Each structure stands twice: as structure tokens, then as C-alpha cells.
Automatic annotation (TrEMBL):
<dbReference type="InterPro" id="IPR003737">
    <property type="entry name" value="GlcNAc_PI_deacetylase-related"/>
</dbReference>
<protein>
    <submittedName>
        <fullName>PIG-L deacetylase family protein</fullName>
    </submittedName>
</protein>
<dbReference type="Pfam" id="PF02585">
    <property type="entry name" value="PIG-L"/>
</dbReference>
<dbReference type="InterPro" id="IPR024078">
    <property type="entry name" value="LmbE-like_dom_sf"/>
</dbReference>
<keyword id="KW-0862">Zinc</keyword>
Length: 249
């Protein structure tokens, strides 16, 4: 809903989605609930993480942190029906909007050939006004740009000539989760419990957030509380929803 007006459903007339995010766990903070619904109904979804989240846990050295977060991401993805998880190894925390990132994302789009592209909030703020981080803003905007780049044979032409990745113009929509200006929604039913398990799989990261009296000391309790609060119910209370800002192409 926006105010008292229900948002239209995000069309499900697609087969394969590629979900692009900056860090392990980004997709689990809500988007994975929609992914769980989609995979249960026969759609396929692949995940692409731009970093390994190596700067995300204060008391773990980056190399050790990256290995743990990759493992937790693969576990969490599998719990919502995602078998393909790829990492680009860009530096966590210092992503910049450059052509190298756009090229890597364009290559991934050409390789996966999705008809739906998913990413996270590229705006300055989250719903409610909290400031968004540079990595999220950078990846979200670069993903929107790469959706067009991937279909233009004269942008990054070496992808075709040297890597065997011809242009892909099949992306019909880009759906941005966590946007402060959503346009569409996906109803969540059985996918909620799978989404809770998927977020709780990031137990090392979640426990790294915890103060002694925080619910984050119990990853499943933390995940349930967060998603209960974030995935607000429909007007009739019959289902939770994930909201997206959708750009058609």
C-alpha cells in the first residue's frame, strides 16, 4: 500500500530472474521472501553479490569474514530455492560508480539472460528517511544502467568478441526492493517461514550486530522480528507483502 491505496501486483509473466546486491545478506532482508514465493511456483532465480561482505564484521579479519559470509549466503539462498550464487569480488565498503562495475554487471546479465532483474534501493534514503549506504546506492544504480548496457553491442564490445557473451535485450523489468517510492507488491504466504530461515542463516553476521540484550544473539528470533516488522500486512491482513519500485523496459 501507499497510504491507503494497495499497490498493484508485480507481474509474474517471467521465467528467470537475476538478483543483484552489494553484500551477502542484503537480499535476505526482505527480498528473499518474494524469491521463496517465486521459486515455489516454478520461477528460477540466481543471486549475484558484488562483494563478499568482508568489511561487515568488526571483530573478524576481512579474509576470514569473507569466507564465512560466502558460506552463509549460499546456505541462505538455498533455503529459498536459489542454487546459483556468484560473487564478483569488488571491495566491500568502497564501491564506486565506475565502468568496471557496469561492465561486470553487464557481463552477468548477458551470461544469465534474465527477463526480470532485481536489485536493492539506489536512492539516498530508505523508507522512513534513514540514510542509505554508498555500496547500496552504487550497486542499485549500476544495475539499472547495466540493464541497458547489456543490450548494446557497442558498449563493452569485448564481452561478445572475447568472452562469447552476445548482447541481451531480454530484461523486461527491473524491480528495486527497499525503495522509498514503491510501485508494485508481491504477496507473501508460505514464503515467510523460508525467508526467516534464510536470514537466520547469516548467524555470524547477525551475532556481530548484537549487544548483550539484543535479539540478534538469537539469529532466528532476530530474523523473525525484523521480517515481521518489515513485511507489513495487506489491507485485509491476509498476507504480508514485499514492495518494489518497478521500471519497465
Amino acid at each position: 500500500m501507499t497510504g491507503n491505496t494497495p499497490l498493484p501486483a508485480l507481474p509474474d509473466d517471467w521465467h528467470h530472474a537475476l538478483a543483484v546486491a552489494a553484500h551477502p545478506d542484503d537480499l535476505e532482508y526482505g527480498t528473499a521472501a518474494a524469491v521463496a514465493e517465486w521459486t515455489a511456483s516454478g520461477h528460477t532465480v540466481a543471486y549475484l553479490l558484488v562483494t563478499r561482505g568482508e568489511a561487515g564484521i568488526d571483530d573478524l579479519p576481512p579474509a576470514e569474514c569473507a569466507a564465512i559470509r560466502e558460506t552463509e549466503e549460499r546456505t541462505g539462498a538455498a533455503l529459498v530455492g536459489v542454487d546459483t550464487v556468484t560473487f564478483l569480488d569488488h571491495p566491500d565498503g568502497t564501491l564506486t560508480p565506475n565502468t568496471a562495475l557496469r561492465r561486470d554487471l553487464s557481463a552477468a546479465i548477458r551470461r544469465h539472460r534474465p527477463d526480470l532483474l532485481l536489485t536493492l534501493n539506489h536512492h539516498d534514503t530508505w523508507p522512513g528517511g534513514h540514510w542509505n549506504t554508498p555500496d547500496h546506492r552504487t550497486v542499485g544504480r549500476a544495475t539499472l544502467d547495466a540493464a541497458t548496457d547489456a543490450g548494446n553491442r557497442w558498449i563493452f564490445p569485448d564481452l561478445a568478441t572475447e568472452e562469447g557473451l552476445p548482447p541481451w535485450n531480454g530484461v523486461r523489468r527491473v524491480a528495486v526492493a527497499g525503495s522509498p517510492t514503491p510501485t508494485h507488491a508481491v504477496e507473501i504466504h508460505a514464503g515467510f517461514e523460508r525467508a526467516v530461515a534464510s536470514l537466520a542463516a547469516h548467524r555470524t553476521y547477525i551475532r556481530g550486530l548484537a549487544s548483550p540484550d539484543s535479539p540478534a544473539t538469537d539469529p532466528r528470533a532476530y530474523a523473525r522480528e525484523f521480517l515481521d516488522r518489515t513485511l507489513s500486512p495487506t489491507a485485509d491482513g491476509a498476507a504480508r507483502v514485499v514492495r518494489f519500485e518497478v521500471f519497465s523496459r
